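Q: My labmate handed me this sequence with no annotations at all. I'd like to see what the chain might look like in three dimensions before we decide whether it's worth expressing. Could you predict it?
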Amino acid sequence: MEFGFTAEQTDLRDTVRAFLTRHATSARVRAADGFDAELWRRLAGELGVTALAIDEKHGGFGASEVEVGIVLEEAGRVLLPAPYLSTVTAAAAVDPALAADLLPRLADGSVIVTLALAEPGAGWTPDRWACTARRSGDGYVLDGVKEHVLDGAIADVVVVAAVCDGEPGLYAVRAADLRCTPHDTLDPTRRQARLEFEAVPASLVGRDVRRAVELLWAALAVESVGVARASLELTVDYLRTRQQFGVPLAHFQALRHRVAELAVAVEAATSSAWYALRVAGTEEFTIAAPLAKLVATRAAYAVTAESIQLHGAIGFTWEHDAHLYFKRATANRLLLGDEVALRRVIAARAGL
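A: Here is what I predict for the chain of 352 residues:
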């Protein structure tokens, strides 16, 4: 298996990083309150990154999960206040044969789409879901509740995991037809919402619910790598410039050792996340995805928490970005299963 990046993939990373460095500044991220509509329009329209992994016959570029992962990692570095993760995971989760009318709009960024998986008291486990779909004429209607839906308050279409006649599936519903209650969450750079469905018209767009969960695990993992790496770089730059006793803080061996341990954690997270993306089309993905989410989000949480400590007093202030990275890392760590739940999934699937 090839673990490097091609020249085209490197160019993609450079282009996205240059764009986000210029336009997704700290001040703009803070002012966006979770969604910068103009930034999203330019990201989808000028860079076309929403079309990356969508087949060419649906208006996309036919790229792989790796190219999407590159953009996700760069988005994590700047805490992008736009629904890229939610939209591309929804696009990857649907069946092209069932969602042929939705995919072209996903490709050109004209609609914002998100996955609605978790339920109150049931979490993300399909066999515990209470959200149901039932046939109505040529389509379906949905009843139930979903919570912790990423970008749920700004989505135009929601891809909902529901059970119909005992079989789980993915159903597309218009946001205008459901009741949405935004969540107050720890992370101010990405909002979540509670969605309620009462006889809401829906169309079947996919049947592989487990893969939808795995795709979101992998997406959160690679985004968390970006969060962790940016936080680590911010910390190293501070230690190199901040002086104490007449020398930079990076001069002190105890601090150097702490940073070295964080660097090792980031590399482990990077390996896990990118391996998962590269096996996304194989059976191995069923174990690699939850493992990547576990390793990467744990690393991001550790790095961002330690970053606040290593920055000293300034790291605890609202004006510094350290707390924003910590909040995104914490939210990603808890979404779709904490470490205990993920270990159970991995052990069960690996037969341990």
